Amino acid sequence: MTDFKLIPDINSNMPDDFLLALFAQMEADGTASQVFLEREITDAEKWLQYIKSPGVHLYILFADDMPVGVCWIDRLQERWGQFHFCLFRQAWGHRSSVPLGKWVLNEILNMKDEHGYLLDMLVGILPSRNKVAMRYVLKCGGQKSGVLPLGVVNGATGQSEEATVITITRETLL
């Protein structure tokens, strides 16, 4: 995995079957239940509906022309947004998985228009118990910025759980 690409799904131009295959990969890898802990997205059709909804900005991650993950930004506020990230199994633990994550974050935070940077910060809210995701995002340049005592809802139990707030800026990526 050396040749990275980040393909935005601008105006939901990706074919539905391709988008559905991305969700199927998350399910096959066992990550869908963690990424969608609250259980609002429980099947491929709900994923498709969500990812095509206004205010959700999907990017497909490629390494060597193979899809290796997805990320999306929603809940945009001024010049920051909530960031969601999921690597597929074939990228887990690979020596280039952290460089891939850093590269993706750098690409997104350095997108510009005629007025300058589009985003100054990405915010992730992770269940504090998800130590694997936490280690990965910190290695990629994220910083722990706080704790929300009951910040996520575990859809399987219906209970609120502690969440860690992670922030990523161009400065933390240096």
At a glance:
28% of the residues lie in helices and 38% in strands. It is α+β, with helices and mostly antiparallel strands and 174 residues long.
Q: Return the structural class.
A: alpha+beta
Radius of gyration: 15 Å
- Oligomeric state of the chains? single chain
Order of helices and strands: EHHHEEEHEEEHEE
CATH architecture: 3-Layer(aba) Sandwich
Total number of helices: 5
CATH C-level category: Alpha Beta
**Fraction in helix:** 25-40%
* Largest β-sheet summary: 7 strands, mixed
Assign the CATH topology.
Aminopeptidase
Low-confidence stretches: none
Annotated CATH homologous superfamily: Gcn5-related N-acetyltransferase (GNAT)
Quickly list its features.
174 residues; seven-stranded mixed sheet; alpha+beta; single chain; 28% helix; 38% strand; two-stranded antiparallel ribbon; Aminopeptidase
What features would you describe in this structure?
- With 174 residues, this protein is α+β, with helices and mostly antiparallel strands.
- The chain has one domain (4-169): Gcn5-related N-acetyltransferase (GNAT) (Aminopeptidase), CATH 3.40.630.
- The protein is 28% helix and 38% strand.
- The strands form 2 sheets. It has a 7-stranded mixed beta sheet with strand order 1-2-3-4-7-9-8, covered by helices on one side. The chain has a two-stranded antiparallel sheet with strand order 5-6.
- Strand 5 and strand 6 form a beta hairpin.
- The radius of gyration is 15 Å and the shape is globular.
- The two termini are 22 Å apart.
- The mean pLDDT is 93.
